[in-house]
């Protein structure tokens, strides 16, 4: 059996190299192999010190997440880490890439930590609904103090090598190209010094100081209550770090383990682990060979410098890609560039960007009123308003301007991409790139595959998404593609319940209680009712509100009234408008009572739409639909997305309840064929039906 941890001894230094592609996840086989190598080196009298280093692109990136939920396999993390920490010879972690989770926790159990200059360390377990379960909540506070430890663990952020050195997380830095040699030299120096081996667990100075701050933990919890709302892991992390300050090390480890076991068994963590893998699965397109040639994208054109065009442009500027920005008037062009500049300046003021980067990025824009300037770009993204004739006219012109092989993309959010492609002589080069507002923030990018879009163009779009920090989900052509189509029923049901007499504040409260950042009507007010402007075929409350100038939060009144702090409150005017529209449309009063009943109306309709999107082949897989909801509509990540959530409820129960709802509310609740097939076979979304 090839050992995943191989040892080479040079000049008395044992270098144990871990090699478990792609990210050296600390799987059970790797833990076992490492323990064998460690014991062998400790028993070898020729060995005076031990270096742990990794092959490939990164140090250990954490426990093997695929092992969660399975029977634990030895050696356990605590056993392996105790063997390292209690070793009689110096053990030095040589870190490159990203030492994360259990990987960084292993480094904390080592006596010394060396980092390559480009390395990063972190404890991102919180993003999986977990906490560092291998001593991280106990060792880290002893090195950096409770406050820094709470920030690092609850944020899950990656810390660059220089900051790690300053914090005392690593002991020295070496150049990227010199990590192995630097670690050997460092080991030799450690041996030569012959001093006692430092153990993080023995450090008490930092936590002694923390014991003098009795409200440290309650203050931290209170200061972050909004950010942590609905999430179990942050609260558990606070408890674990508090145990590090208040309990002896071993008791703190026991406390940490108990909290970890609770989290790893929770629905929330299962949902967040599902999202982790779903994000990565979304980038895989079955019918695209792995070696599919892609177009090199060195320059981009964006047509339209409005809200979407500006946000789209920023994605490319952030990736260092030049953008030719086209508008029809100088005023619109100037306004577009000004908004981009202001966005960057706001980021600088938050300390998340250096001031000199603003000019660097703005300097990548070539503003122009002349579409002919797009003749040499590799990709053009059209981001003008949603009118099929305007888009077809633009693509007809582009066809005569852009170079052979250039990709022409539309940011359309629901129009028929095939009709847009048909305006050109090269539909194989036309693709949809549907960004979500604000386009420079939302991570979802729907790549819309037209009937004639070529495979290299799809492969290029999927690859480009990752390059600009987006998660691409491939969509077929339909009204609303995936995310907008998926969530439309939630709005329809919310507005139906409103007209039946269910208070809009109750509907919104149920959605916020479920975990959405805000309810349906509050979101409409935030976006602006005039912006949403639907092609209503009949009288609507929104239409009456707009006619009355109640455009939403920006006007201090929409569905809700807003005080000077923009806090929403019930509006008698809106209540009267609801009654007037309900009467005009002969809608009987029949309020939906109870949170569960309101939630079922709102979200079962979404689950049903997701099943249709999947059954029609618009989405490649169930988890893509979950990703579209989580990343496109902020579906609470600890719910895993609509289809993952439906699986947890049980499809049989959903079908039965939908049939009752169908009897009262009709078609929208007729269970889709796929949903019925899965339920009848005792299957779940994600199974082949
Ligand atoms: N376990 C299993 N597979 C993993 C993995 C992991 N920890 N990390 C990544 N992969 C797979 C991933 O699914 C993908 O597979 C491939 O590796 C490349 O990943 C005890 C309990 C390291 C920053 O949360 O953040 O330790 O799709 O596409 O963009 O306290 O992967 O190719 O088949 O993301 O270069 C804590 C998770 C675990 C880190 C690299 N650690 N990973 O990003 O590549 S819990 C994490 C990442 C834990 C301890 C606790 C990123 C990355 P495939 P990728 P990347």
TrEMBL record:
Pfam families: 3HCDH, 3HCDH_N, ECH_1. Residues 300-474 form the 3-hydroxyacyl-CoA dehydrogenase NAD binding domain. It is found in: Peroxisome. Keywords: Fatty acid metabolism, Isomerase, Lipid degradation, Lipid metabolism, Lyase, Multifunctional enzyme, NAD, Oxidoreductase, Peroxisome. Pathway: Lipid metabolism; fatty acid beta-oxidation. Residues 480-562, 598-682 form the 3-hydroxyacyl-CoA dehydrogenase C-terminal domain. Gene3D superfamilies: 1.10.1040.50, 2-enoyl-CoA Hydratase, Chain A, domain 1, NAD(P)-binding Rossmann-like Domain. One of its GO terms (molecular function) is enoyl-CoA hydratase activity. The keyword Cytoplasm does not apply. The keyword Oxidoreductase applies. GO terms for biological process: fatty acid beta-oxidation. It catalyses: a (3S)-3-hydroxyacyl-CoA + NAD(+) = a 3-oxoacyl-CoA + NADH + H(+). Belongs to the enoyl-CoA hydratase/isomerase family. In the N-terminal section; belongs to the enoyl-CoA hydratase/isomerase family. This is 3-hydroxyacyl-CoA dehydrogenase. The lineage of its organism: Bacteria, Pseudomonadati, Pseudomonadota, Alphaproteobacteria, Sphingomonadales.
């Amino acid at each position: 059996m090839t050992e995943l941890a191989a040892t080479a001894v040079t000049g008395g230094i044992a270098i144990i190299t871990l090699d478990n592609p792609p990210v050296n996840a600390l799987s059970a086989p790797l833990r076992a192999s490492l323990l064998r190598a460690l014991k062998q080196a400790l028993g070898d009298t020729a060995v005076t010190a031990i270096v742990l280093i990794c092959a490939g692109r990164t140090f250990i990136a954490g426990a093997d997440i695929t092992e969660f939920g399975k029977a634990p396999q030895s050696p356990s993390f605590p056993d392996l880490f105790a063997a390292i920490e209690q070793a009689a010879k110096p053990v030095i972690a040589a870190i490159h890439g990203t030492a994360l989770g259990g990987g960084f926790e292993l480094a904390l159990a080592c006596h010394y930590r060396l980092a390559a200059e480009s390395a990063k360390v972190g404890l991102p377990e919180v993003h999986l609904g977990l906490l560092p379960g291998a001593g991280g909540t106990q060792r880290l506070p002893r090195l950096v103090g409770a406050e820094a430890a709470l920030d690092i663990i609850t944020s899950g952020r990656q810390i660059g090598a220089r900051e790690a050195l300053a914090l005392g997380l690593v002991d020295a830095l070496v150049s990227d190209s010199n990590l192995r040699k630097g670690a050997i030299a460092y080991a030799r120096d450690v041996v030569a010094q012959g001093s006692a081996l430092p153990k993080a667990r023995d450090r008490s100075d930092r936590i002694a100081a923390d014991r003098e701050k009795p409200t440290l933990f309650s203050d931290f919890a209170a200061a972050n209550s909004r950010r942590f709302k609905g999430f179990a892991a942050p609260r558990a992390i606070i408890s674990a770090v508090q145990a590090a300050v208040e309990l002896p090390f071993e008791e703190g480890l026991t406390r940490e383990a108990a909290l970890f076991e609770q989290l790893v068994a929770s629905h929330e963590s299962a949902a967040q682990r599902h999202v982790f893998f779903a994000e990565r699965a979304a980038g895989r397109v079955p019918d695209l060979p792995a070696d599919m040639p892609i177009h090199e994208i060195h320059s981009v054109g964006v047509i339209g410098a409005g809200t979407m065009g500006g946000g789209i442009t920023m994605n490319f500027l952030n990736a260092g890609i030049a953008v030719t920005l086209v508008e029809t008037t100088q005023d619109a062009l100037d306004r577009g560039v000004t908004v981009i500049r202001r966005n960057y300046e706001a980021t600088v003021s938050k300390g998340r960007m250096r001031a000199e980067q603003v000019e660097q990025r703005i300097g990548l824009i070539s503003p122009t009123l002349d579409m002919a300037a797009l003749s040499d770009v590799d990709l053009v993204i059209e981001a003008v308003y949603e009118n099929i004739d305007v888009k077809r006219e633009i693509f007809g012109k582009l066809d005569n301007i852009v170079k052979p092989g250039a990709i022409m993309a539309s940011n359309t959010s629901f129009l028929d991409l095939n009709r847009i492609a048909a305006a050109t002589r090269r539909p194989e080069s036309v693709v949809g790139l549907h960004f979500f507002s604000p386009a420079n923030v939302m991570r979802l990018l729907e790549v819309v595959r037209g009937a004639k879009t070529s495979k290299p163009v799809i492969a290029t779009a999927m690859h480009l998404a990752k390059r600009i920090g987006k998660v691409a989900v491939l969509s077929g052509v339909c009204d609303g593609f995936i995310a907008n189509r998926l969530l439309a029923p939630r709005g329809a049901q919310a507005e139906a319940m409103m007209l039946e007499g269910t208070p809009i504040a109750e509907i919104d409260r149920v959605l916020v209680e479920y975990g959405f950042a805000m309810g349906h009507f509050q979101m409409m007010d935030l976006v602006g009712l005039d912006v949403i402007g639907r092609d209503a075929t009949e009288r609507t409350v929104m239409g009456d509100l707009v006619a009355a100038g109640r455009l939403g939060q920006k006007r201090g009144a929409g569905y809700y009234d807003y005080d000077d702090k923009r806090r929403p409150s019930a509006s008698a005017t809106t209540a009267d408008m609801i009654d007037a529209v309900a009467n005009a449309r002969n809608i009987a009063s029949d309020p939906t009572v109870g949170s569960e009943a309101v939630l079922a109306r709102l979200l079962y309709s979404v689950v049903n739409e997701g099943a249709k999107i999947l059954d029609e082949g618009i989405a490649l897989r169930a988890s893509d639909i979950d990703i579209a909801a989580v990343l496109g509509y902020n579906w609470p990540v600890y719910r895993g997305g609509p289809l993952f959530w439906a699986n947890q409820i049980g499809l049989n129960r959903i079908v039965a309840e939908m049939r009752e709802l169908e009897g009262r509310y009709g078609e929208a609740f007729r269970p889709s064929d796929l949903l019925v097939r899965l339920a009848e076979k005792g299957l779940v979304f994600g199974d082949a039906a």
